[in-house]
Amino acid sequence: MNKFNWRNLRNEHVWLSVIWFAISFLQILNPSGASLTGWFNELRFTALSWLLIAPLVFLMFNKMADLNRFITFVLFFSCLATLYGMKQLYLGVSSGEQQWLNSGNDVTHILDGKLRVFSMYSDAGQFGASQAIIAVIALTLALGPFSFVKKVIFGLIALFLLYGMAISGTRGALFALASGIAYALFLSKNFKVLIVGIAFAMAGFGVLKYTTIGDEIFQIRRFRSALDPKDASLNVRLDNQKKLAYILKDLPFGAGLGMSGMNGITYNADKPIANIQPDSYWVKVWVMYGIVGVMIWMGFTCYIIGKCSGIVWKLQDPKLRVKAIALTSGTVGCFICSYGNEVMNAMPSSAIMFMSWSFVFIAPWLDNQSKQIKADGNSL
Question: Who's near 275: CB < 8 A, 6+ residues apart?
């Protein structure tokens, strides 16, 4: 007996992951001369992980209980990560983590003598952005039609994860938080709260940009620098993008996989473009796939988010609808903040993002199951 219903894979999410993998695989033919090893290492993250993760929900985790477990696990392990981050901040890093810092990572992770907490993640940027994304999910659930106790639990989890975001010193996490919350309010069609939320957000950004309140706190200084157009880090990024634009003007299909970021430095150090840091996943895709590839990638991502949004609006089960809103909004925050850091191309954010999309895609199935259970219950 066939355990899996392979027909479930006939959907846009899986098909787009297949098409993107094919496009990425064909980059092996890119004439720019990227290292084969660099191409393979990059392929695993930019395309293969999406191809392998997207089908899992449709084949194996397609029940309401699976969705609930997924959300529970994501919230639990994110809280565990913040706890470990607090250990790093207050009790110090382990010997292995200290070796990692001593290998050159202290330049970006120890600023003004303060540690940018990275917890169990690859770096502080991934940790902070991930905490912001999961905080969006928890905050959205806290406003859902759940019991008072659950609302309080979700709210406390959100606050705890926001603390994790703060101690990471990751400035891009602010944009994940703001865009994710705004999109959650938009999907909920609660436009009054959305307007109030935007007003509070603008006030918060105004405090950061136009005042010096809280400057004695390292984390607030870090967030404030994200809004400073004269910030040295921002200007370096903009200068690098100008250099990349000059090189890429004659490369509509990019320089090839593995020609940017860590793989570029490791495997293609002899190529000038590989030594210019992208400092952004959006820019990295542009470098590797060119203007043609980045437009395709943007189109795929925006289509999936739009499809998820349409699904959310049609759901009847109020609890399921809120869960779908939370997951969709979390992926929007992940996508937006990936402009500043390589968030959606690394674990665990990439796995959470791809599985979240799949869970929203199967939400209509779950909605029908819920209706059937209610109908059967009423008929008894």
Answer: 264, 265, 269
